[in-house]
Structure formats: C-alpha cells, structure tokens
Amino acid sequence: MTGCLDGVRVLELARFQAGPRGGLLLSDLGAEVIKIEPPGGEETRRHPPIVRGQSVYFSVYNRGKKSLCLDLRSARGKEIFAALVPGPTSCSRTSGPV
Fold first, then answer.
1. Rounded distance, CA 9 to CA 84, Å?
2. Strand order, beta sheet including 89-92
3. H or E segment at 83?
C-alpha cells in the first residue's frame, strides 16, 4: 500500500508522547521515519508495562519506524546525521538542544 508521503524521510529526535505520536502518523501516511536515539536507546524503551522484555508504550508509539542510536555530540554522529538529510527530509524534535 502506498501513502501520500511515500518518498519523504522524517528524522525524529522526539521523545515521549507528542513527537513520537506525530512520527507514527507520518509513518502511517507512508513516510520513512527514522527515530534517532541517544547511545543506550531512548528512556521510554524501559517504561512499564514491559511485556516479553519490551515496553508496551515504546512499541505502540514507535511502530513502523526505523531506529538508529547516534551520539549527536560527537563529530561522527553529526556526520552520520548529515548524511541522512539529503533529499525530501523533515526533522521532528520535542526535546531540548541535542
């Protein structure tokens, strides 16, 4: 099934509800959503309830997305992030400065 946002890439740096929910909707509309997480993963990966070793909260709000752990404070992390941007790309962020 194709969506109206096919071919659009969204780099999601958002946490908790508002940002991940927006990314979820964009993914449902066909966008490629790549969730950028800090080293060790986003803290909501450990939020209860935990079922079969996975956070239900994280699984619900991040279905249909790709995930990538990047240290955006390092030169290499910034280089990888910049390489993801070419083409039709949007960034979503709800946290403070990275």
1. 9
2. 66-69, 32-37, 9-12, 89-92
3. helix 75-84
**Measured between alpha carbons, how far is 55 from 44 in angstroms, rounded to an integer?**
7
With the CA atoms of 91, 70, 95 and 29 taken in that order, what torsion angle do they form, in degrees rounded to the nearest 10?
40
- Between 94 and 34, the higher pLDDT residue: 34
Instruction: Identify the band that residue 15 occupies on the pLDDT scale cut at 50, 70 and 90.
Output: confident
CA torsion through residues 77, 6, 60, 22, sign: positive
Of the candidates 7, 15, 9, the one whose C-alpha atom is nearest the C-alpha of residue 94 is: 15
Instruction: For 3-55, list the strands marked E by DSSP.
Output: 9-12, 32-37, 50-51, 54-55
